[in-house]
Amino acid sequence: MSSLPTQFTGVTVITKANVYFGGKVVSHTLLLPGGAKKTLGLIYAGSYHFGTDDAERMEITAGACKVTLDGQTTVASYAAGTFFDVPAKNGFTIEVAGDICEYICSFLP
Question: Does domain 12-107 have CATH number 1.10.10.10?
Answer without folding.
Answer: no
